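Query structure, 180 C-alpha cells:
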C-alpha cells in the first residue's frame, strides 16, 4: 500500500467523493471481503460490492486475493493508498497568476503535492520540513525580503553544483490569517 495517491482524473475524484465510498475505502485499510465490510457498516454485501467495484475501477482499491467460503470464491480487497490527494488541476486554472499573488502559492503547493506523491516511499527519504512565523513591521518588509533573497542565493550558490542528490526547495511567504 502506498502512502499517497495523487488523483488527477475527474473519474477518480467523482468515485472518491461519495461519502458511502469513503467509508468503504476506510474499511479497506486492511484486506477485507465485501461481506466483512458490510457487517461493519451495517449494509448489504451487494451494496458494498457495488461500491468496491467502483473503487477498483477507479484505481483506488484492488483485489489482493481470493478465498473459498461455503463453496463460493470471495474476493479480498484493499485500498491502494493511505491518503488520496485531489489535484487542483481537476478544477483548472482561471485567469493568470502573478508571482507575488496568493494564486502563485496555490500553484506552488500543487507542485509540492505532485512531487511528494510521486516519491517512492518504500525507503526512508532524506527530507526536511520547516515552518515558523516571522513578524515584520511594514517599514522593514523590503529589508526582510532582501535578507531572505541573499540567504537563499547563498545556499543556491554553495550547493548548486551538478554533483550529488537533487532537492527541490520551496518557500512560501504569506499573511497569517486575521492576526496581523
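Result returned for the query:
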Amino acid at each position: 500500500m502506498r502512502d499517497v495517491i495523487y488523483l488527477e482524473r475527474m473519474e477518480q475524484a467523482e468515485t472518491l467523493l461519495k461519502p458511502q465510498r469513503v467509508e468503504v475505502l476506510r474499511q479497506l485499510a486492511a484486506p477485507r471481503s465485501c461481506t466483512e465490510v458490510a457487517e461493519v457498516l451495517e449494509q448489504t454485501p451487494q451494496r458494498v460490492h457495488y461500491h468496491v467495484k467502483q473503487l477498483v475501477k477507479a484505481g483506488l482499491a484492488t483485489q489482493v486475493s481470493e478465498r473459498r467460503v461455503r463453496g463460493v470464491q470471495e474476493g479480498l480487497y484493499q485500498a491502494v493508498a493511505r491518503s488520496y490527494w485531489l489535484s487542483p488541476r481537476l478544477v483548472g486554472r482561471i485567469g493568470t497568476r502573478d508571482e507575488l499573488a496568493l494564486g502563485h502559492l496555490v500553484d506552488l503547493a500543487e507542485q509540492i503535492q505532485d512531487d511528494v506523491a510521486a516519491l517512492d516511499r518504500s525507503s526512508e527519504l532524506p527530507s526536511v520540513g520547516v515552518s515558523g512565523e516571522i513578524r515584520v513591521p511594514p517599514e522593514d518588509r523590503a529589508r526582510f525580503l532582501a535578507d531572505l533573497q541573499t540567504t537563499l542565493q547563498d545556499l543556491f550558490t554553495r550547493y548548486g553544483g551538478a554533483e550529488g542528490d537533487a532537492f527541490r526547495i520551496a518557500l512560501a511567504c504569506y499573511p497569517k490569517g486575521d492576526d496581523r
